[in-house]
Amino acid sequence: MSAYLAFAQSAFQTQLAYRNEVWANLFGKLVQVFARVAIWLAVYAGASTIGDVTLQQMVTYALLGGVITGAIRYELIISSIGNALKTGDVAVWLLKPVSFPLYVIVSELGRAVFRLVFLVMPTVAVVALVYGMLPPASLFDGAMFVAYLLLGYAITCLLSALFGLLAFWLLTSFSLEWLMQAILNLLSGSLIPFWFFPQPFGVIAEHLPFAWIVYYPAAVWLGRFDPTQTLLYFGIGLVWAGLLALAVAALWRLASTRIVVQGG
């Protein structure tokens, strides 16, 4: 375990070394979050409420979506696995007493902590000062939001590793990055919350693991569920995370038996 903590710490410190990149990314995040909020301001077109969702709730949802999706770059997990396969480095990892998928995941978590603290939080704070942001509906919802946030990051990393390992059969990771981006945009609730989805598609999307990445954390913050529902959905999310972890372990065991080194 100490080795994986060292990998995460090293990834965090590596990010500190590129200060100019930090400023460029901070500006990019600022534009991205402003655009996300501006879209919903245009959709509401002066109306204060659509259905049972107020404009302020929707702006808060958009800002929380920026917090969640801005920290983790799932494509780096997929490309790391794809590059290791392409260069042949993955064969070296088979000789080491650590799990390669877990190494990729904890390294990205180290970088995600850096982005969350130095990029995402300052960006959201600036936009929240401009447009306003609702506080959590209750102290319980605020605490559960943090728990859902951590669970969502774990599910994102496991899904990314699962997609990345498919490169062992496809021998490319680029198309897998695009595929996962398209799925996350639609099924995580990052662009449109599920309460605006047509039924029964919305109900189906609520029960897929992608929903725990953006939709459930933001909905919990806004108090859309009572405490029983909040705990129930959190438990279901834990089950999804466990199943995905088992799937990653099984796929890695299967993939490591069919490595084809193309270079390196």
UniProtKB/TrEMBL annotation:
What Pfam families has UniProt attached to this entry?
ABC2_membrane_6
Keywords from the UniProt entry: Membrane, Transmembrane, Transmembrane helix
Source organism's superkingdom?
Answer: Bacteria
Q: Does the keyword NADP apply?
A: no
Looking at the UniProt entry, the stretches that span the membrane are 26-47, 59-78, 112-134, 146-172, 178-196, 208-225, 231-252
Keyword hit for 4Fe-4S: no
Entry-linked PANTHER family: SLR1174 PROTEIN (PTHR36832:SF1), SLR1174 PROTEIN-RELATED (PTHR36832)
Protein name, per record: ABC-2 family transporter protein
Q: What is the lineage of its organism?
A: Bacteria, Pseudomonadati, Pseudomonadota, Alphaproteobacteria, Hyphomicrobiales
